[in-house]
Amino acid sequence: MNTLIQVDTDKKIFYLCNKEISYIFRVLPKTQKLEHIYFGRHVASHGTVKNVTQADKAWGEDLIAGNQYSSLSRLMQEYPEYGTGDYRLPAFEINYPDGDEISNFEYANYKIIDGVPDIKGMPHVRYSKSDCQTLIVTLKDQYSGLKMKLNYTIDSINASLIRNVEVVNDGEQIYTVKSLKSMALDVPNDDYDLITLNGIWAREKQVNRESINPGIKEISSRRGASGHVHDPFVALVSSETTQNSGEVYGISTIYSGNHKETVELDAYDVVRVTAGINDDHFSWDLNPGENFVTPQTILVFSDRGFNKMSQTFHNLVRNHLIAPRWRKRKNPVLINNWEATYFDFNEKKILDLAKKASQVGCNLFVLDDGWFAERNSEKGSLGDWRVNYKKLPHGLDGLSSRIHKLGMDFGLWFEPESVSEDTPIFKQHPDWIIGIKNKSHSQGRNQYLLDFSNPAVVDNIYKQMDKILSTTKIDYIKWDMNRNITEPYSQYLSLNQQGEFYHRYILGVYSLYERLVKKYPEILFESCASGGGRFDLGMLYYAPQTWGSDDTDAYERWEIQKGESYVYPLSTIGTHVSASPNHQTGRQTPLKTRGNIALFGTFGYELDLLNLSELEIEIIKQQINLQRKYAELIATGDFYRLKTSLSSTDAWMVVSRDGQQALVCYFKGLSHPNMGYDHVKLYGLNDEIRYSINDSYYLYGDELKNIGLPLEYSLNGDRIQDFDSKIFEIKAN
Ligand code: GLA
């Protein structure tokens, strides 16, 4: 591997460069603080870069008396601290035994390692030693025995950097970490806009773009999960950035708990972004000899708009986050019984549905909520993971073997973190429920959450799940989580550990995943939290796919999946074809469109196949054939959000990395009569190659890229209707 990290030891400048990007910072000679110099398109490591810095203009509150250049208030910093005269938001805060929070970390040394430092118990990027290098810069606090290690990992291919931080207590006293972000980034403002992904249940990941104004903007979760409301992702983009042009800094943390991203525009026109664990209600005591490690944050730079940013995230997730055995998988075509039966099922009903599903070509049957204890509604039994023999007289094992005989794999729904009042676990262990005695405990969906910061709780749930998994052939698990933490308190943790609760909760969730995937590596996990309430990079480390949203309406799904595609590859987005009228919106959409949109995800069905016409069954068979044909392309290709010209239309495409094959989906919202001409320019194709379009006509790559693919308003010559769509199969010919 070419060296990706160079150090000018004289001038103390660090260069992290690959062909795509450079990231540069240095040690300030007078104060030994780290000054950020540059992050962006590749520039070579010239010693002259020091001349672009603004350090000599520093002015404000001087760290060294009488030396105005020792002020930090107008410098771009690498990992800013509290109590130094830099009034912007710091990247960390530590409480000292005297009650103050004033730190003074100075540069101590650096080292470079091949690979990436281990993060135990937390999801992280998976790189081999030959894939990447990590620069570890150690800072030492002048007021204590604390050390801070700043880790920067760069690989040779991707326009990205992975950052995280470790604080180590080499002193003799206890220090309390009040805040420790995974990273901070200062960049000179370039008329930047801020991009965030926001929503709520059934409206996940709506893209928001706003200009960055002086002051502080916060994106965060205080729910105990990354949440439906704000994805742990922000991007700074130039005001002219589009899907395919312009600069983007995309930042996303590999974490599923409370997160916080801040964006601050200061008086000197510098934008500071911080990201990592939310410091609200957080504190962590560091005893002598202990350390605390933050989750990793991925920083992506794109000079070709949002699409290039997304492709970089997608490549990182597919090649370095998801477990190797799932990377090249062709997703099974799944049938899930939830919207077909809800709680109202028995073995016969399930087997009838499964039979039909296997006839149309599905190869994974997922039994959703309602198979255990007395669970016949949303009202009880969570935490009592024993099969309901009234519904399933041959048990889960009997059902699983019958489904396997139909030629399908068998999947099962769990909600491991939740508990209902009517269960033995709730009655016997009131101290295992999150919340404090004698104060209110809010219900969410009639249920409570178990205290996963307590290893005994995690162990109990592990054993209950293990009992089922070791006696029944289960190929897939849908791990759901249908409420958030409301009254955060752990009866297991001590008084002064309560600030650790939220983080320890999510570490408990990770530890259960860890144990299950270790013992049952062949089980495909899909995470879910009332749809996309915990759709984040942390979950994808254990569960390589996430149920995209409980809103299965095709029209709404277009926007939701589009937002999800900003960070998450199509192969991770759970998509199902459901019934029309849709159960969430009441909207009627063509089966063809429901299939076309679900195709750009994991793909499956969630409707009563026994209630469909022969024509609909025929269409479903064709959809499954199409999915099989393109599963690999969807899993490995480059995804582009395209620009159409008519206002009520949209399009996206996936193209193979060798440019030989592509799939375009054109989608219409409301239909209008007498509309104009629409076309869409494609990407990723080879200029000189002639492509066949739907086996009916030909166009060259340069034509498709520059003139565009013509789109008919009346798709397929059918009658014009709302929510129509069309797939274009494009292949080198
Ligand atoms: C959540 C999930 C749904 C379904 C139900 C079952 O809402 O998002 O897909 O599994 O729970 O109760």
Give every kind of bound small molecule, once each. alpha-D-galactopyranose
Give me the Rg, rounded.
Answer: 27 Å
Low-confidence stretches: none
**CATH fold call of the largest domain:** TIM Barrel
Pfam families: Glyco_hydro_36C (PF16874), Glyco_hydro_36N (PF16875), Melibiase (PF02065)
GO biological process, one term: carbohydrate catabolic process
Binding site for substrate: 201, 368-369, 445, 478-482, 528, 550
Keywords: Glycosidase, Hydrolase
Q: How would you summarize what this structure contains?
A:
By secondary structure, the chain is α+β, with helices and mostly antiparallel strands.
Can you walk me through this structure?
The protein is an alpha+beta fold and 733 residues long. It has 3 domains: 78-320, Beta-galactosidase, Chain A, domain 5 (Distorted Sandwich); 325-636, TIM Barrel (Alpha-Beta Barrel), CATH 3.20.20.70; 640-732, Golgi alpha-mannosidase II (Immunoglobulin-like). The chain is 19% helix and 30% strand. It is built from 13 helices and 39 strands. Strands 6, 7, 8, 9, 11, 12, 14, 15, 19 and 20 form a 10-stranded antiparallel sheet that branches. A 9-stranded parallel sheet has the order 29-28-27-26-23-22-21-31-30. Strands 5, 10, 13, 16, 17 and 18 form a 6-stranded antiparallel sheet that branches. Helix 11 (591-598) links the parallel strand 30 (577-578) and strand 31 (604-606). Helix 7 packs parallel to helix 8 and helix 11 packs parallel to helix 12 (614-636). The radius of gyration is 27 Å and the shape is globular. The mean pLDDT is 96. Alpha-D-galactopyranose binds at residues 338, 368-369, 413, 480, 482, 528, 530-531, 547, 550. Belongs to the glycosyl hydrolase. The active site is at residues 480, 550. Residues 33-287 form the Glycosyl hydrolase family 36 N-terminal domain. InterPro entries: Aldolase_TIM (IPR013785), Alpga-gal_N_sf (IPR038417), Alpha-glycosidase_related (IPR050985), GH (IPR017853), Glyco_hydro_36 (IPR002252), Glyco_hydro_36_C (IPR031705), Glyco_hydro_36_N (IPR031704), Glyco_hydro_b (IPR013780).
